[in-house]
Each structure stands twice: as C-alpha cells, then as structure tokens.
Specification:
The structure holds 2 protein chains of 2 kinds. By secondary structure, chain A is an all-beta fold. The relative contact order of chain A is 0.33. Classes of the chains: A mainly beta, B mainly beta. The interface between A and B is medium-sized, with 29 and 25 residues.
C-alpha cells in the first residue's frame, strides 16, 4: 500500500528558481492538502483541494501555486523561490470530514 | 495563528511511566486528532476523537475531549523508549470547508530507558 507519495524527498534551490513538488495518493481520497513545517513548529496549511479541478488557499498561500488536474495528484509550485520558503513540505489526503487523513513522508526544501 | 496549543512543550520521563500531554483549541470543532512525528520523519496518525465523544482508547493510548473547555489530553501508559517523538494535536474546525487540519506546535516527549 503506497498511501501518499511525495517527490522529490530533498531539493536545494537557488533564490529565484522555480520547482514543482508532486504528490500522489492511491486511496481515492477526495481531499488533498499541502502543508509546510518549520523547525519547532506544527504544520501550517498552504493550499488544499476538495476535488479534481478545484483548489483553495490555506493559511500561508503566498508564493505558492497548486493544481489538481487528476484526482490522485496534487502539485505544489514555487515560481520564484525565496529563503523564507526553506521548510519541510508535507502532502496529505483525506475523506470529507477529516477522516482517514494520511500524510506523505515529506520533502525537505532548502533555498539558498 | 495556531488553533491548537500543546502543553507541555517538552516532557521527559522514564520508561514505564505514563505520559500526559494536553491540547487546547479556540473554535468549535468537528473532530480532534493526535499525531506522532519521529525526528525527521512524517506524521503518523494515532487517534481521532469526534466532537460528540468524550473518551477514546487505542492500545496504550487514551484520549479525552472536553468541548466545554475546548481541550483534549493524550495519555500514553507504560511508556517505552520507542515512544520518543513529537506529538501534535490537530483540529478540524466546524466552520472550515475542506476538512483542513489546524495543528498545535507539539509536545516533544523523551522516554529515557
């Protein structure tokens, strides 16, 4: 059972570069999410999606864009990376109501 | 701002002792969940308690929920060194669409052998 798979697991970017983080889930979950976790803190929601073709802003959306073209995939894009975006990024998926929440193993991103 | 706040921020106990962590939140919730995170790893779901439930058990875990006080506690009984991790509570607020989880900052539990 793969669950939620994130790629890549590690990445170093230079300031101003762009990249896309990929999240894939095989549990047929309707809802998908991108969170970031900074040192010593809990997770904060960046963007989320309640279904294919839909996206919405979370708590800290600035500097990020997302797309949900297929139900099983949720992409997080950084158009122009900044050092403040150095963080660990977690993707998750769930059923409506917050049940069955499953997290990926995370992507550690460093922006220099 | 964080919806949930865990207390204490750090807890150090001896193997075999019980560990209690508390969580407070601000808004009405649909459910509250507890997660464990080992250093440098992802989050592992431990237990979910619905807003109409007061107590729930899973193995060595016991979770209570007091919606009148907007608080929850996680009790780990007979702790083991392998329980060393950060523990987070997370809530799904009633008024939030998309079942977003709002996390606290976590409790770092250290269980000494």
């Amino acid at each position: 059972n793969a669950g939620v798979t994130q790629t890549p697991k590690f990445r170093v970017l230079k300031t101003g570069q762009s990249m896309t983080l990929l999240c894939a889930q095989d549990m047929n979950h309707e809802y998908m999410y991108w969170y970031r976790q900074d040192p010593g803190m809990g997770l904060r929601l960046i963007h989320y999606s309640v279904g294919e073709g839909t996206t919405a802003k979370g708590e800290v959306p600035d500097g990020y864009n997302v797309s949900r073209l297929k139900k099983q995939n949720f992409l997080l894009g950084l158009e122009s990376a900044a050092p403040s975006q150095t963080s660990v990024y977690f993707c998750a998926s769930s059923y409506p109501g917050g049940y069955g929440y499953t997290f990926g193993s995370g992507t550690r991103l460093t922006v220099v | 701002s964080q919806q949930g706040e865990e207390d204490p921020q750090a807890l150090s106990i001896q193997e075999g002792e019980n560990a209690t962590m508390n969580c407070s939140y601000k808004t009405s919730i649909n459910n509250l969940q507890w997660y464990r995170q080992n250093s440098g790893r992802g989050l592992v779901h431990l237990i979910l308690i619905r807003s109409n439930e007061r107590e729930k058990h899973s193995g060595r875990l016991r979770v209570t929920l007091d919606t009148s006080k907007k608080s929850s506690s996680l009790l780990i009984t007979a702790s083991r060194a392998a329980d060393t991790a950060s523990y987070f509570c997370a809530t799904t607020p009633l008024e939030t669409s998309g079942s977003r989880l709002t996390f606290g900052e976590g409790t770092q539990l250290t269980v000494n052998p």
